[in-house]
Amino acid sequence: MTRPPNDGNAGRIQPVDATHYDPPQAEGVLQMKYRKRTYYTDSQKALMWERWKAGWTLHQIARLFDRSHGSVRGILAQTGGIRPPERHRSRLALTLAEREEISRSLVIGHSTRAIAARIGRAPSTVSREIERNGGRAGYRANQADSGAWDRAHRPKLCKLGENRALARVVTDKLRTLWSPEQIAGWLKHTYPCDETFHVSHETIYRSLFIQARGALKKELLEHLRRTRGMRRSRHHTQKTAIHGQIVDAVSISERPASVEDRAVPGHWEGDLVCGSANSQIATLVERQTRYVMLVKLEGKDTQTVVNALIKNARKLPQELYKSLTWDRGTEMHGHKQFTMATDIQVYFCDPRSPWQRGSNENTNGLLRQYMPKGIDISGYSQAQLNAIARQLNERPRKTLGFHTPAEMFSESVASTG
């Protein structure tokens, strides 16, 4: 056997360069980057919830903390955009000071009864506290206090989780596009003496947005008027400024008092609902009865809109169509032509004041359940629009004592003879 040549270094330990060596990366290979997890303090979360309730957007809130809006959404989405109730310790629970006294007394060697007498608690309370937190040898006050706070999470089963028959009724009504408030009102009206079938609309909303409750399936969110997965503040708005000047516009401030207080029927509010591909329809809502009419439009220029509204107005007796309140949209530049053809006075809202047509704004929101934003609505025929309006008019409304607009409007028609 041939031996290796003796170079004089046999048996000698060679020095090793221990510097960390990063091999060159192959060209074109992507390096994985890890984002640092974002943490928020309790005070930051409290501020976050305050701003969310005030109507701030995720981006606006994130700028407060110089963070990404995704990290803010992660906090808010855990409870569906609904602020969790602030936690409080029970006045009967052991305090940290009492636990520290227990810990010191155990080190000294005091008995359970002696410790209980020292802090003014029952011996059984002290005994359970020691046993569940490591025993006499392993008891630590801070660990025991932290463990008690964590164990205090005892979420109660909500009413819809306990009463599955009620949950099935609520589910069926949601699938027919009823709102939670309509469902709650209808249940009280239908089952006045059976409180097991009474549930608040807030409970329904919370069961939808907070899935940890396990009462209603998340898929039912798509049947709400707003299909977003998080609840937004009522102060949030995406309404932009209304542009366009209307010549000889009659201000809403000049509208008669009988129109303002909804004392008599026949006064309507109107607006356009737009879809993709430059498509739109006109929506009309009677102020007293909340009765809805939908009008197909071939365009949104003032001549097309006014002609369609004139044709629609001639379907009703004069007693049930006396005035129309519109926003400042340029589609009503031809309001004088409409008034001359129908003898119906048109009033215009103040700039940036859509709330002055509250009934119409609310109805447009309901309509989005049937015509979601982003779809082309030009393909709907007038017959299809009438069918959608019929469904809206047959839904009970809280403001009408949970009667339907169709019922109220029929009474108005009958009263006119």
Describe this structure as you would to a colleague.
40% of the residues lie in helices and 7% in strands. It has helices spanning 42-53, 58-65, 69-77, 96-108, 112-119, 123-131, 135-138, 141-151, 159-162, 164-175, 180-190, 201-209, 257-260, 302-313, 335-342, 358-367, 382-393, 405-415, and strands at 267-274, 280-286, 292-296, 323-326, 345-348. Mean pLDDT is 83; it is low at 1-21 and 239-243. It has a five-stranded mixed β-sheet with strand order 3-2-1-4-5, with helices on both faces. With 417 residues, the chain is an alpha/beta fold. It is elongated and about 100 Å long.
Helices and strands in order, then pairings?
Layout: H1 42-53, H2 58-65, H3 69-77, H4 96-108, H5 112-119, H6 123-131, H7 135-138, H8 141-151, H9 159-162, H10 164-175, H11 180-190, H12 201-209, H13 257-260, E1 267-274, E2 280-286, E3 292-296, H14 302-313, E4 323-326, H15 335-342, E5 345-348, H16 358-367, H17 382-393, H18 405-415
Parallel strand pairs: 1-4, 4-5
Antiparallel strand pairs: 1-2, 2-3
Quick overview:
With 417 residues, this protein is an alpha/beta fold. Helix 4 crosses helix 8 (141-151) and helix 5 packs across helix 6.
List keywords for this structure.
5-stranded mixed β-sheet; 40% helix; 417 residues; alpha/beta
The rough form would be described as: elongated
**Spatial strand order of the main sheet:** 3-2-1-4-5
| Helix-and-strand structural type | alpha/beta
Radius of gyration: 34 Å
What is the residue-averaged pLDDT? Answer: 83
Pattern of helices and strands: HHHHHHHHHHHHHEEEHEHEHHH
Percentage beta strand: 5-15%
Helix proportion of residues, in percent? 40-55%
